[in-house]
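Sequence in, structure out. Go.
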Amino acid sequence: MSKGIHLTEYHEAVRLWLKSNAPWLKSVEYYPELTAPLITPCAFFSVNGWDPVDNQPGNGQLQVLLHCEVLAVIGLKEKTHQLDARNAAMFLSVILQNTNFDLKVTPANVVSADADATEPDLDAYTVWSVKFVQKATIGMPTLEADEERGIRLAINPIDINDPAEYDSLESFNETTT
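Output:
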């Protein structure tokens, strides 16, 4: 029995495939919270959701239709930034169509591409969104407690950006029992 893929594996495969097949991109990353200006042109990849498919494997795995998006980001300094963004989106649409990113998934199907103005972090750039769907069998994820990434709470923090004011969820549970 195949164990299916994990979303982390899928994200990384798509990111590396895009870097290899669109070498003009300066970077390809998962959609981040931006803290510094971007070096453009670049792209961001995300899985925006999924729907279970009708015929499930019945082996503890879940077959889903992944709803994915690649954002092509072009700097406004370029004189032809609007045209460049559209050309970038068209290029991405062509290479994404029917690829499987070297994974055991069905070929990708591009469903739309359009200008994207919904990401406030990217208002300083021209952005086009390329959306595609792809069927994949997902295996059971392995989730482990991670102090750095786990849920952390603060009651009336003075500085919401100070990690020292937050405690793990487990420590709150211990004090309430």
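Check: The first strand starts at residue 27 and ends at 30. Residues 155 and 166 are 8 Å apart (CA to CA).
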